[in-house]
Amino acid sequence: MDRIRIIGGNQLNGVIPISGAKNAALPLLIASLLTEETLILENVPRLADVAQLKRILSNHGTDIMTAGKQPGDDEFAGETLHISAKNIVDTTAPYDLVSTMRASFWVIGPLLARMHEAKVSLPGGCAIGTRPVDLFLMALEKLGAELTLDAGYVIAKAPGGLKGAVITFPKVTVGATHVAMMAATLASGTTVLENAAREPEVVDLADCLIAMGAKITGAGTSTITIEGVKALHGARHSVVPDRIEAGTYAMAVAMTGGEVLLQGAKRAHLDVALKAVEASGTTIVETDKGLLVTRLAGDITPVSVTTEPFPGFPTDLQAQFMALMTKASGNSVISETIFENRFMHVQELARFGAKIAPEGIHAHVKGVSVLKGAPVMATDLRASVSLVIAALVAEGESTIHRVYHLDRGFERLEDKLRACGANIERVRG
Ligand code: UD1
Known about the structure:
Blueprint: E1 3-7, E2 12-17, H1 22-31, E3 38-44, H2 48-59, E4 63-67, E5 79-84, E6 92-93, H3 95-98, H4 108-115, E7 117-121, H5 134-142, E8 146-150, E9 153-157, E10 166-168, H6 174-185, E11 190-194, H7 200-211, E12 215-217, E13 223-227, E14 235-238, H8 243-256, E15 258-263, H9 271-279, E16 283-287, E17 290-295, E18 305-306, H10 318-325, E19 331-335, H11 345-350, E20 355-359, E21 362-366, E22 375-377, H12 381-393, E23 397-401, H13 404-409, H14 413-418, E24 423-427
Parallel strand pairs: 2-15, 3-14, 6-7, 10-11, 18-19, 22-23
Antiparallel strand pairs: 1-23, 1-24, 3-5, 4-5, 7-9, 8-9, 11-13, 12-13, 15-17, 16-17, 19-21, 20-21
Uridine-diphosphate-N-acetylglucosamine (UD1) binds at residues 23, 26, 102-103, 129, 131-136, 171, 173-176, 315-316, 338-339.
């Protein structure tokens, strides 16, 4: 298994191109199942999760053509995929394919909407809490689906097609908002999603669906209205920049010091997280090329944050911000309200000498002046990158094991950081 070796102490200076967002690319690929025509997606990140979803879509009978790099393309330019789900040959998403990635469960929405049936294994994904699917099932039942659970599979049927409905989510959920929005595009009549997720990835999916002929208003607010249409058509769409990748590198620069341009990143997508980074003593300026992040000197000021649905502080940046706070000049509290078991990085950060005391949904962080290099283990996607952030300033050498977690969501992380001066390398095998 690959490892990442880092020798801490170097500042970061230069340019980091921000890739297309994993969390937008996944639902966008899945949306291809809604139409017989070809969906062309640009700026798709090269990630293990995307590769896994391609396997799942292929199993349903989807043809995916990857266009190669064009002359003049940036070194880190994303892929262009031509996805054609002309003939859906299989409406089952089997356990072997679905169990490694939670988002693959989302195929249930388009399959049910277009084929009026689906059999989808209950999902897997990062071990960050129980992550139930009750709200997906509630939404699909409201749309008229008949659901049964059998041997780890959800069997969904909608003879005659789905029907528009008012769906009120008791809790904000990104995944169930994506699925309900996709399913409702082909339902008869009007669907209203209340207390819908407002994340930029939801807006990106809505924009793509609209380009495919869907009638959707309100994406980006908590009420989304979808007027069903008979069929969707092909379209061309470019994936939004990854706000979590951008926030992660902003926190890395806040940790190491230096000046980095996060090319393509947009402030409006992560304003609350950037305000927390700024409060820690870092300057962030939005330019027409992206976000310029600068920390030249001085202590890291302690800042407490609480994760919340968008536009609040994202749970996907919680571990990274905690890593930054381990070197702050005082105490902070990091509170996690979205997932119940998302502090697995605490014990790994402790190996660097970080002082963190978890207490229920809170982690009390006591800043220390020195972190020391150590062997550590990646436990989930975002937690693993928090270990990279700590290792970048830890004295001496650190080795991060189980890098496959990182490869699920960060495109060529070591190349991007090395280009900015980090002493980082991947050790194969
Ligand atoms: C998505 C993101 C993930 C991010 C999360 C929250 C993708 C591929 N993943 O995950 O990176 O951390 O949003 O921003 O986009 N819940 C239920 N019942 C359900 C569904 C969800 O109780 O049926 C709960 C979850 O356990 C969690 C909360 O709702 O406590 C939010 O989960 P949700 O927004 O659905 O997360 P995902 O869509 O899985």
